[in-house]
Structures are given as structure tokens and as C-alpha cells.
Amino acid sequence: MQRYTKPAMVLHWLIALLIVAAFTMGLVMVDIPGFTPTKLKYFSWHKWMGVTVLLLAAVRLLWRHGNRPPPHPASMAQWQVKAADVTHVLLYVLMFAVPLSGYLYTTAAGVPVVYLGLFQIPAAFAADPALKAVLKPVHYWLNMAMAALVVLHVAAALKHQFVDRDDVLKRMLP
Ligand code: HEM
């Protein structure tokens, strides 16, 4: 069996963990009423996790460029190969689009992002309330699209493991 490379596995599972954590924290933090220190802390953690996803996604894309993934098993139907390829491309797009929309929303809100409390990420443009109103639902709906694709992706991995009983999931496991 041909596995993914070690760096590809590390990046896959690290990014997966960070996305689940940032997603959960996003839903929790927006439901905290008022402006409490806990809410502000959660917003910061959320942004740090999101920015880390963006950085790791860039590393992952570069790595994938030079290291092709193992081929799909020959037993897979053509429509499944197409569906897997389209899902993977969309997940790559959303790995960038979701954190970028969060950064752009925060920038439009006029709030600086201080990564890990250490480095201030430059604002791409000045605060813009009209743009802020547009980018808030954009960040939300890109997240919902990503969540739907992640559910599909996990369901497909489990089908490969327990129904098809092929090596697809094992190739991403150490
Ligand atoms: C993988 C990365 C990310 C994920 C999965 C994610 C997920 C989420 C989710 C689920 C929400 C709740 C949306 C709602 O219920 O309205 C949210 C809100 C938010 N996110 Fe993100 N996010 C990510 C990256 C970022 C980044 C990089 C930033 C900023 C630098 C950011 C800034 C925000 C802000 C400010 C809100 C609050 C929106 C409001 O004012 O209601 N996010 N995020």
C-alpha cells in the first residue's frame, strides 16, 4: 500500500484539528452575551487558530505541489473518483477562503489582529461598516459550506474503511 508522505499526514491531521477547534470556538464565542473578558479571549484564540490554518494551508499546498498523493484504488467507480477530486479541490479552496474571510471581516470592522499576541498583522484596508455587514454572512456561509463538505469527506472515509474495506483511510494514518 502506498501511503501519503509524513508531512502530508501531519498537515492533514493538524489542520483538521485546528479547523474543528476554530469552528467550535466561533459558534461558542458569538453566543456569549455582552463584552466579557472571556469573550474577548475566545475571539483572540479563534483568530490565532484561523491564521494558523491559513499559514499551514499554504505550506500544505506547496508540499502537495511537489508530492503527488497516492492514486485512487482501481476498484473505485469513475463517479466516486470525480466526487473525491471535486471535494478535495473545494476543501483546499475553503481552507484559504474561510480564514481569509474572517481576516477581511475583522479588518472591515477596524479591529487589529495580533497573532499569538505577538505580531500585528497589517490591515489590508481601512475600517468599512458597509463591507463589514457583507463579510459577516460571507464568513458564516463559507463555514457552513466547509462543514457540509467535511461531513461528506468523513462519511466517504468511513465508507471506504467499513463498507469497501480498501486502504483509502489507512493511507492517511501513520
Ligand atoms: C479555519 C478557520 C476559521 C474557522 C473554521 C472559523 C469559524 C467561525 C465560525 C463558525 C464563526 C461563527 C459565525 C457565526 O455564528 O456568526 C466565526 C465567527 C468569527 N470569526 Fe472565524 N473562523 C476561522 C478563521 C477566522 C479568522 C482567521 C478570523 C480573523 C482573523 C476570524 C474572525 C471571526 C470573527 C471576528 C467572528 C465573529 C463574527 C461576529 O461578529 O459575529 N475567523 N468563525
Account of the protein in words:
By secondary structure, this protein is mostly helical. The protein has a single domain (6-172), classed as Fumarate Reductase Cytochrome B subunit, CATH 1.20.950. The chain has helices spanning 6-30, 37-66, 78-108, 129-164; strands at 113-115, 119-121. A two-stranded antiparallel ribbon has the order 1-2. Strand 1 and strand 2 form a beta hairpin. Helix 1 packs antiparallel against helix 2, helix 2 (37-66) crosses helix 3 and helix 3 (78-108) runs antiparallel to helix 4 (129-164). The two termini are 12 Å apart. The model has no long low-confidence stretch (mean pLDDT 97). Protoporphyrin IX containing FE (HEM) is lined by residues 19, 22-23, 26-27, 30, 43, 46-47, 50-51, 53, 98-99, 102-103, 105-106, 113, 136, 139-140, 143.
Can you give keywords for this protein?
174 residues, mainly alpha, Fumarate Reductase Cytochrome B subunit, two-stranded antiparallel sheet, 2 strands, 70% helix, elongated, binds protoporphyrin IX containing FE
Mind telling me which CATH architecture this is? Up-down Bundle
> So what's the CATH class?
Mainly Alpha
Hetero groups:
protoporphyrin IX containing FE
Helical stretch tally: 4
**Helix amount, in percent?**
over 70%
Q: Could you tell me the number of beta strands?
A: 2
Strand order of the main beta sheet, please? 1-2
Reading the helices and strands in chain order gives HHHEEH
Computed Rg: 18 Å
β-strand amount? under 5%
Could you say how many structural domains there are in total?
A: 1
**What can be said about the biggest beta sheet?**
2 strands, antiparallel
Judging from the principal axes of the Cα atoms, what is the shape? Answer: elongated
CATH fold field value: Fumarate Reductase Cytochrome B subunit
Low-confidence stretches: none
Question: What class do helices, strands and sheet pairing give?
Answer: mainly alpha
Taking the alpha carbons of the first and last residues, their distance comes to: 12 Å
Q: Please, what is the average pLDDT?
A: 97
